[in-house]
Write a structure and sequence with these properties.
heterodimer, A: 375 residues, mainly alpha, ABC transporter involved in vitamin B12 uptake, BtuC, globular, disordered N terminus, disordered C terminus, B: 324 residues, two-stranded antiparallel ribbon, 2 strands, transmembrane transporter activity (chain B), ABC_transp_permease (chain B), membrane (chain B)
Chain lengths: 375, 324
């Protein structure tokens, strides 16, 4: 194992290796398609048509992309501090609760111009609060953040079931959902928004949250790479001991990065609750938090990479729905499988090809023999 | 009075049944984590095991062959975890997440392909399930007050996997604390360098540990689909793998304490079912969700250091690098 003792050129490490990992994940998906008797080429065509073939499909694709950008950024910010925020699910759920409660209680009294920003802030605060407790416990009591965030996912889900069934449920309703928000607190859908400028597009759940997602990506880029806090986060993430010597307090960094992470995850609630459902309900968040891990891994924790990876997952989600609709012998869970394979090959087996690539590189550059002796 | 006693016994009886998969999965996690490999994919392995057991049992018509299939599938996933975390030193949490998600997706995709029932497996006949066993004399003593009831309801009348799970606790204790393998297992989790210096392969011990994890998760999965239920349905483990993980931490990575934690969490679950819609004198109706959330809440409080201290094996989560 020559890992670490030789340097690979940047492009191999940052582009070729991730590319090989993704190709492996897709190859594994193709094998599964073949195993269940589906032609992978035909499946890909249907998938791409579903995602890009018509306006409504594109709308859905970008709608899903919005969620993935939020959760991908959330996971990435924590990653930069060396933390694994596996609680995106719970933070998204509680973020939605924050936005929803604000719309529910203030929506009819205040104008939309006030309610909407307030609700967005509420989503961020609620998400951050749900991340704050595990962060605090990690920072000051030494509890492992992976375990506590897992527990907080389940706690969020119990809390929401309780609230939706026993407290916030609309009177006279059978299903556990709240009353509809006042219309002033709805976030503009993209088709309504563009109609203002005279552009007609088909209706889809895509709404203005996507701009919020892009803003969040810019924010994360500036925050992580161009502020003191971001510098502290990256320092603690790459070498906590050195950070402490430089006078950085790890506990503060843990809390700060997790709160930002939670706030970003909470934004999923804005897209779902304020953008589409216009009411609080159960399970609007399911799967996005975990998918965020795949998105962050694939996007290498950089906002540009995350936007691209989120788009890919948006395509898979929407295309996967189309696939399940078109082919009776496939269900939407094929997307879940792909997601698992991406996490496996781009995440857990990230370095699988590294030793092999290293040997190739050394052989081609003709430095293999010399290095081998030196090692 | 007798009514209350019967309700009490029935609740404990239910506790045993819901605790069984928790005990098996938590002990599974114990092997892996004691060797230094963090495993949050107990859930995924159980789910895959449950699917394999139900699928194979429905085709082969035998619960035992189903059990073997569950163990085999669960071992394959455990080895995948090992391949990523031990051989390639990948992130153990990421690998665990990948396996959970993969199991959730693959069971549905393959289930639909093989059985065309929207991802479910066909309902199992009684021959293809693990049925309740009557221990000798259970009927004879059933009329003896109290003790007879305890023997008949609580101790007798479970399927064989329940007994396996409970026997697995002393067995695990024996393996981990009284055998050479157990000593090495614990050593590898605390100080792999020392084990390596003694000429024992860290990699080999950790692989053996994750295989043990695979076997026990497989049994847990088979219990869920072929003993507790009679078919596989979507996401049927429903977070039990994570409760088991919580129980493992709550039990501080020690077999008998883990058993206690599993029984406690199982009891809470049984109690939640029993208290549904019941108004308690002086307290009123307790929301079921609150009782359901208690295992998670208790674990968080424990981890925060308010009930004793949970110290994980020192080397857990850290891949072993030989050249240092």
């Amino acid at each position: 194992m020559s890992q670490g003792s030789h340097e690979m050129p940047f492009w191999m490490d940052a582009i070729l290796l991730p590319f090989l990992n993704i190709v492996t994940a897709f190859a594994a998906t193709a094998v599964i398609f073949l195993a269940i008797g589906v032609d992978p080429v035909e499946a890909t065509q249907i998938l791409l048509f579903g995602a890009f073939g018509y306006e409504e499909g594109i709308g859905y694709t970008l709608f899903f992309t919005t969620n993935f950008i939020f959760t991908g950024l959330a996971v990435a910010v924590a990653f930069h501090a060396g933390l694994f925020n596996i609680g995106g699910e719970g933070q998204a759920y509680i973020g939605g609760l924050g936005a929803g409660m604000l719309c529910l209680f203030l929506g009819q009294w205040l104008p939309g111009l006030l309610v909407i920003p307030l609700a967005i802030v509420a989503a961020a605060l609620f998400g951050a609060a749900w991340a704050y407790i595990p962060a605090y416990l990690q920072a000051y009591r030494g509890s492992h953040i992976v375990i506590t965030t897992i527990m907080f996912n389940f706690l969020a889900s119990s809390l929401m079931v309780y609230l939706m069934v026993d407290v916030l449920k609309e009177d006279g309703q059978q299903s556990p959902q709240s009353a509809e928000f006042a219309e002033s607190s709805w976030l503009y859908s993209m088709h309504d928004f563009l109609a203002i400028f005279g552009v007609e597009i088909e209706a889809s759940p895509l709404n203005l949250s996507i701009f919020l997602a892009l803003l969040a990506a810019v924010f994360v880029w500036i925050f992580i790479w161009h502020t003191r806090w971001g510098y502290e986060i990256r320092t603690i993430g790459s070498n906590a001991t050195a950070g402490v010597y430089a006078g950085i307090k790890p506990a503060r960094v843990i809390v700060l990065s997790m709160c930002i992470s939670g706030a970003l995850a909470g934004m999923v609630g804005v897209n779902e609750v304020m953008g589409v459902h216009h009411r609080l309900m159960l399970d609007f968040h399911v799967g996005y938090g975990f998918a965020g891990i795949a998105v962050a891994l694939m996007g290498r924790n950089h906002p540009v990479g995350i936007i691209l990876a989120a788009l890919l997952f948006g395509v898979l989600y929407q295309g996967g729905a189309e696939l399940a609709f078109e082919m009776s012998n496939i269900n939407r869970d094929i997307v879940v499988v792909m997601q698992g394979l991406v996490i496996l090959f781009s995440g857990a087996l990230e370095f699988m090809y590294r030793p092999w690539l290293m040997r190739m590189y050394l052989a081609i550059s003709g430095r293999g023999d010399k290095q081998e002796v030196a090692a | 009075m007798n009514d209350w006693f019967t309700i009490f016994i029935l609740t404990l009886d239910a506790t045993m049944r819901v605790s069984t998969p928790l005990i098996l999965a938590a002990l599974a996690g114990l092997f892996s984590e004691r060797s230094g490999v963090v495993d949050i994919s107990l859930e995924g392995k159980m789910l895959a095991g449950a699917f394999a057991a139900a699928a194979v049992a429905s085709i082969a018509g035998s619960a035992w062959i189903g059990l073997l299939a569950a163990i085999a599938v669960s071992i394959v996933l455990a080895l995948l975890h090992g391949f990523a975390c031990i051989t390639h030193r990948g992130n153990q949490v990421v690998s665990g997440v990948a396996i959970n998600i993969l199991a959730a997706g693959l069971t549905m995709v393959l289930g639909l392909h093989w059985f065309k029932q929207g991802g479910q497996t066909p309902r199992l006949d009684n021959e293809a399930r693990f049925l309740s066993l009557d221990l000798p004399g259970a009927q004879a003593v059933a009329d003896v007050p109290y003790l007879g009831k305890i023997y008949e309801e609580l101790i007798s009348g479970h399927n064989i996997l329940v007994y396996v799970a409970f026997l697995m606790v002393p067995f695990t204790y024996w393996v981990v604390y009284k055998t050479r393998f157990g000593l090495r297992l614990r050593a590898v989790g605390e100080n792999p360098n020392a084990v390596d210096t003694a000429g024992i392969s860290v990699v080999k011990i950790r692989y053996l540990a994750v295989i043990c994890t695979g076997i026990l998760c497989g049994i847990a999965g088979a219990y869920i689909s072929t003993a507790h239920n009679a078919q596989f349905v979507r996401d049927m483990t429903a977070g039990q793998g994570f409760i088991a993980l919580a129980a493992l931490i709550f039990g501080k990575w020690r077999p008998f304490q883990v058993l206690f934690a599993c029984l406690l969490f199982g009891f809470l679950d049984a109690l939640a079912v029993r208290l549904q819609g019941v108004s308690l004198p002086g307290i009123g109706e307790i929301p079921v969700q609150f009782i359901e959330a208690l295992p998670y809440l208790l674990t968080v409080i424990l981890l925060a250091g308010f009930i004793g201290k949970a110290v994980a094996p020192k080397a857990s989560g850290i891949p072993y690098v030989k050249e240092r």
